[in-house]
Amino acid sequence: MSDHIRLHIPGPVEVSPGTYEAMAAPMIGHRSKDFVKLYDDIHPRLQSLMGTEQPVFLSTSSAWGVMEGAIRNLVNKKVLCCCSGAFSDKWVEVATRCGKNAEALQYEWGTPVDPADIDAKLATGEFDVVTFIHNETSTGVMNPLAEVAAVVKKYDDVLLVTDTVSSFTVVPIEFDKMGIDVLLTGSQKALALPPGLAIFSVSEAAFERASQMKDRGYYFDFIEFRKNQENSMTPSTPCIATIYGLRHQLDVIFAEGVENRFARHEKLNNTVHDWVRSNGFEFFAPEGFRSKSLTCLANNKEIDVSKLQKIMREDHHLAIDGGYGKIKGTTFRLSNMGDETEETIGNLLSALDDSLAKL
Ligand SMILES: *Cc1c(COP(=O)(O)O)cnc(C)c1O
């Protein structure tokens, strides 16, 4: 691992040696008692982290699998997609490719979603699903989940699908209390696991909708997931090694304490923010809506971002992100999610000091 480039990109993030060790446990059959034991061990802890009594499912796919699955299981009339960045924008296209009616509630990248706009759209009665990204990883904006959930809750026939891929276990999320209908996350972001596993929960209202839905497919069929979960199993052979890793990360999360984990993310994020300010950079996201898991910097100083990345990689063995899609180069991103510590973030920032001086 000596020439390993340590990841400070916002996904996949750095995976700890302890996680890799846990993943190297011997393989088991996915219909065996050992698997049932494994699922039973992690399930209540996932419920607790999601704030739900609903079943929590393990999908052997990246997050997009479940994002598309939610569309196929739930959209009858029309889906309102809250769009304010790369991931949220793409959801419209995914829905359209699934043959569904979709409308974008479009914001400039970097602008948070406004719950009042969702309210106005839903008041038309045209929609039966809203897609919402809590933490838009491409722009570093954390959208107001509680406020959005409260608005959608006013409409009995509208289901709220929420992506928490880069905010799950970073800030508190209350599935049952907030009235979310699908909550999904992926393994390679805030959970600091290798990619390949998505985790999600589904409300009773969403199960009800799904059970009436034609053409919801098989691989992401919510009803199929529920039937299997009742026996602590998954519909098809899951990525067992990654699930071993998940069990390990849950041990780590609960040993640290969930509140302490939230506080650590906040503190490390503040450390990065202080560095941003003291170096004369600006934030891409407005005050009050900045992600706690990563920082998206506006390149107001017009530095050569790809050169900065190269120096970071070659001189410090660190990978940072050079901006996503259409904001590549005009922004760049630093991740503090997962297992980061004061030491690793300190190293990142001193490496940035050194690299900026060499530009
Ligand atoms: C990374 C990311 C995704 C997509 O995850 P995949 O693992 O590539 O499917 C979706 N939403 C958000 C907010 C993300 O950060």
- Helical content (DSSP H or I, runs of 4+): 40-55%
* Portion in beta strands: 15-25%
User: Largest beta sheet: what is the strand line-up?
Assistant: 2-10-9-8-5-3-4
Q: Give the CA-based shape.
A: globular
- Which structural class fits the helix and strand makeup? alpha/beta
CATH domain class of the largest domain: Alpha Beta
Backbone CA Rg: 20 Å
- What ligand molecules are bound, each kind once? pyridoxal-5'-phosphate
Oligomeric status of the shown chains? single chain
In round numbers, the mean pLDDT is 98
Characterization of the model:
The protein has 359 residues and is an alpha/beta fold. The chain has two domains: 109 residues, Aspartate Aminotransferase, domain 1 (Alpha-Beta Complex), CATH 3.90.1150.10; 238 residues, Aspartate Aminotransferase, domain 2, CATH 3.40.640. The chain contains 13 helices and 14 strands. It is globular, with a radius of gyration of 20 Å. Pyridoxal-5'-phosphate (PLP) binds next to helix 3. The site of pyridoxal-5'-phosphate (PLP) has 14 residues, from helix 3.
Concise synopsis of the structure shown:
The chain has about 350 residues and is of the alpha/beta class. The chain contains 13 helices and 14 strands.
